Amino acid sequence: MSSSGYDKALTRLGDTGPIVALTQALVRAWPAGRDLEYVHLPLAAGERPPVLDPGFYRPLGGLRALPESLRLIAGLVHEEQDLAEQVLVLRTVEQCLGRTVGVSPACGLGRRTPEAAERAVERALALARS
After folding, report:
1. Shortest CA distance to 103 belongs to which of 129, 82, 74?
2. Helix, strand, or coil (residue 40)
3. Residue 129: partners with Cβ closer than 8 Å, 6 or more residues away
4. Which stretch of DSSP H or E encloses residue 48?
5. Coil/strand/helix, residue 1
6. pLDDT tens-place string over residues 11-29
7. pLDDT in tens, 41-76
8. How far are the Cα atoms of 32, 33, 42, 104, 128 from residue 75, in angstroms, in the given order?
9. Please, which residues bridge with residue 38 across strands?
10. Which residue in 16, 48, 96, 122 has the most C-beta neighbors within 10 A?
């Protein structure tokens, strides 16, 4: 774990296209008769906060056809990024998807220090209220 409380990301995506492809494949392969309640979309990467460029999120429009009953959770919570920037990313994601989304950290809280995890939870609450 780095001194900031994160694992290091192994790679960086050029845009959200791979996330869209994986989500679409998951939905297609989901077993009949089993409810798929939500899908998590990881939009940050370890110590790297979400990208600010709106073009990065444009491929998310490919998920607009998903059923409204399927909750989408944007893994964009990153306590090291300015709250105003996080709100901007959240609004961009929602605009691309054409719906409101839930928020969470990209990779949960288990790899963070207790202090960083607490800040992430506080940030998630602030974003949910925005």
Report:
1. 74
2. strand
3. none
4. none
5. coil
6. 678 899 999 999 999 999 9
7. 999 887 789 999 999 999 999 999 999 999 999 999
8. 26, 27, 4, 5, 12
9. 71
10. 16
